[in-house]
Write a structure and sequence with these properties.
This protein is α/β, with parallel strands linked by helices. It folds into four domains: 4-116 and 244-313, 3-Layer(bba) Sandwich (FAD/NAD(P)-binding domain), CATH 3.50.50.60; 131-241, FAD/NAD(P)-binding domain, CATH 3.50.50.60; 333-446, FAD/NAD(P)-binding domain (3-Layer(bba) Sandwich); 452-552, Oxidized Rhodanese, domain 1. It is built from 15 helices and 30 strands. Strands 3-2-1-7-18 form a five-stranded parallel beta sheet. Strands 9-16-10-11-12 form a five-stranded parallel beta sheet, covered by helices on one side. Helix 5 crosses helix 15. The model has no long low-confidence stretch (mean pLDDT 96).
Length: 564
Amino acid sequence: MNKKVLIVGGVAGGASAAARIRRLDESAEIVMFERGPHVSFSNCSLPYHLSGIVPEADWLVLVDPETFQVKYKIDARVNSEVVSIDRDQKTITVRNVLTSETYDESYDTLILSPGANPIVPPIEGVKNEHVFVVRNVVDIDKLNQFVKKDGIHDVAVVGGGFIGLEVAENLKKAGFNITLVEAADQVLAPFDYDMVQIAQKTLVDNGVKLIVSDAITAVKADSIVLASGQIVPAQAVVLAIGVRPETALAVAAGLEIGKTGGIKVDHNYLTNDPSIYAVGDAIEVFHRLLHQPTRLALAGPAIRQARAAADHLYGIPHQNKGVIGSSVVEIFDMNFASTGLTIKATERAGFSADSVYVMPGDKVGLMPDVNTMHFKLIYEVPTGRILGAQAAGKGNVDKRVDVIATLITMGGTLEDLKELELCYAPPFGTGRDVVNIAALVALNNLNGSLKEVKVSQVRELVERGAFIVDVREPSEFRHGHLINAVNIPLSQIRDRASEIPRNVPVYLHCRSSARSYNAYMALQGMGYSNIYNIQGSFLGISLFEYYNDQAQNRKKIVTKYNFN
C-alpha cells in the first residue's frame, strides 16, 4: 500500500521534506499545505526586495504549486490552513483561507513544519495599518508598497536581529530615514559586545540612527514612543523583535512541547506521536556544545532536519549531531559571521573559557583590495577545545567562520586549528590564514607565554592612569593615541627600555597587536615579567569606544580615533 504523507508548511522544512520523500518513494502520495499564497519562497531574501536588489516580489518565490505537481508529483495546496489534527483518526482538518470552507484529509504520516510567528508586543497602536512584520512574500510586498506612498520619509525598525538589520539596511538604500531600535544593549545577539561595536559603527556610518537599551511602548500616527520617553518620527514601523515557534496546532493535538517552548522531538525528529514528525523553526533542538535543548530559527538546520525526518521514515539511519548556530549577515559594506558560543554564553553556562581577538589582513598586503579582518576565537580552558568564533570585515568572513564551525563539529582544538592546511594564494588569503593566527595567539595565552588584556578593559586602564606604551611610529602616534600613552616605537624598544618601569604593570599596544607582541617578547627577553599585550590594540580600541562615545556623549580616551 502506498504511503500518504501530509506536510504542514511549504517553505524550507516542509518543501525539503516533500522533495526528499519523492526522491525516496515514487509511489507515495504527498500533499503539502501552506496557509499563505506561496510555497517554497526565499525567507532570507525578503528584505532585499525593499532596496530593489530583488526587483519583483514574485522573484522571491522559488517553486510554484504547478511546478511541484509537474516536476515532482507533489500536491502543493496554497491558501490552505491546517486548523486541527485528529491523532486517533489520523486526519487533519484544512480550511480554505479564501472561502472559509473546510475539509478533512487522512494521513499515514504527518510532518509539521509550521515555522515561527513574529513577536508583536501588546502595546498601543500596534495594529495600525502602518505597522508591519516580515514573515512572507505578502508581508514584504505590503511593506514595500506602503513606503512608496507620498509622505513616507521616516521608518522605525524595531529589533536588531538579522531581519531587523537587513530591513533597516535595504530601506536606507531605498532612500528612507531609518531609526533602528533595540531593547537590549546591543544588536546581533550571536556576537559578543566587543565585536558587535563594529556592526553598530557600520550602521551609524551609513546614516542609520541606532538606539539601544530602549524598548518601544506605543505606536502613534507618525511616530513611536520609547520606554525612555523619546519620540521617534515614523510614518511606517517594522516589527522585527523576534519570533516564537508556531505550536498552536501541536498543542491542540496534545503533542509534547519542550521546556524552551518548541515542539519536542527525538533524534529522528519524531514527536511523541509515532506518526508525526516536526522540523524547522517550530521545534526544540539539541545544542551540541551546551548539551541542552535550544531553539534555532535558521533555514540551513531546517533543511537538514527535513531530510533526516524523511530518511527515518524510510529506514535510512541518521546521526543527529545537534546544532551550534552558524550565521552570517551583510550590513552595507561589512560582513559579519558567527558560530558556536559567545563568551557571554560560556559565562552563562559556567564554562571555563577564554578568547583572543586578532585583526590581520584578509589577503596578502600587496593586493589592491586587502582589508582588515576582525576575528575572535573562543576556546575552552584548559583543554583548548574550540567553542566558537566571530568575524567582521569586507572580505570572506563566512569562509573563516565555516572553518571554525567544521572544527567544532569534529571536536577540534587549538592545536588542530594551528596545523590546519588551507588554500593560499595572494588574492585569496595569506600563507598563515586568519584562523591559524588566532590559534597561535590563543595557544600562547593558554600556555602562559603571553599575557593579554581585552579591548573592553582599556578604558578602565586609562582612567586609573596605568602605564601604557604605544609602540607605533611617531607619525602614527601623532594621528591619534590613548590620552595617557607613552610612545616608544618597536624600533626603539631595546634602546629605550630604561624608560619602562619594572615595578608596575605595563600595557603594550600598536595598531593591531602584531608589533606590540614583538615588543612584548623583546621586553620579556630582557627580564620584564609584569607586562601585558592589549588585544585589538589601537584599531580595536577605536572601534570599541566609538559608538558609545557618540551615543552617550562621554569623554573620549583617545585623542583621535583611527579606523584604518
